[in-house]
Write a structure and sequence with these properties.
With 329 residues, the protein is α/β, with parallel strands linked by helices. It is built from 15 helices and seven strands. The strands form two sheets. A five-stranded parallel beta sheet has the order 2-3-4-1-5, sandwiched between helices.
Amino acid sequence: MLSGRPLLATAADRRYLVERPETDLVLGHVRAGMNTLVLAERGMGKTTFLHHLEGQLEDEGRISTVYLDGHRLSDSAMILLAVRDRLEGPRTAIGESLRMAALPFTPNPIEARNEQALQLVRALAAEAEKRQVFALLDDPDPEVAHRLFGRLRDELWQTGLVWVVAGDRARRQQYLAPPADAFFERIVELAPLTDAQQRELIRRRVDRRDNRELLDVRVQSGSPRALLASVRDAADSTDDVQAVLARRAGRETRAASKLGRLESMMLAEIEDGAAASASDPDWTGRFGISRQRAQQALAALEREQLVRAERLPGPNGRPRKVYRRAEDV
């Protein structure tokens, strides 16, 4: 199973999981009632990590665990409403509840939303008195998270809910802007997969009848998503795995000898499957550089024919230049 999708808290998916030391660390924190912020680079397995926690906590019994996809929840009231609906069942159809929650029915929508959030906090406090509740929030928008864990910090503390929030490491400062910094008693960073973990991941995913040379594939970033992308590339290639790996090593050597450290770092990310754009704030934030510096570095990689570029529609509809792995050059 070489799909790059996140693994879920199901028996079928658990056989593909590779144990990470951070799992026991976070479990210890939340069992002690400490709200925890989990940070990682994109593609490092945050969603799979949260689902693994979900399964581990549910196995203990007498615990209610709620997984929340932060991408689909655009404000703090919607997050709290989703928690309540998972615990109590939706009072109307879920889609209708979320639609109604998102509509500003009063002349003062911000105040109304804050009041609704406070009412939901009180309802969750009553629910948490009946049972232990863990909320696992995956990759929320930092501004939304700050409104929830900053402005409603004291109210949330009183609910007894324990939160695990997973976010992009590049946005650490935004997640921890005061007063939200005091809400998270522990911060855990997901480390890149070691060589041994990468080998174990491939062993669990590759059918024994497949090419055993795939077990030798590695990615510098230690990203599970990038590793699976590289394994798929190697499996699809008409050449043997060692030839594919050798060509990649050659490209990385050329970047190191002809270009600078930044270009080499960017190439490693792109080789691991990332799509790079100088107009992407996540990309520039990952390296702590300006848009102009990112443009210069990506252009240098293109000149050396180490990456290929194409123009694609951006988030605002305007075209932007996106760089991807070069074909074998």
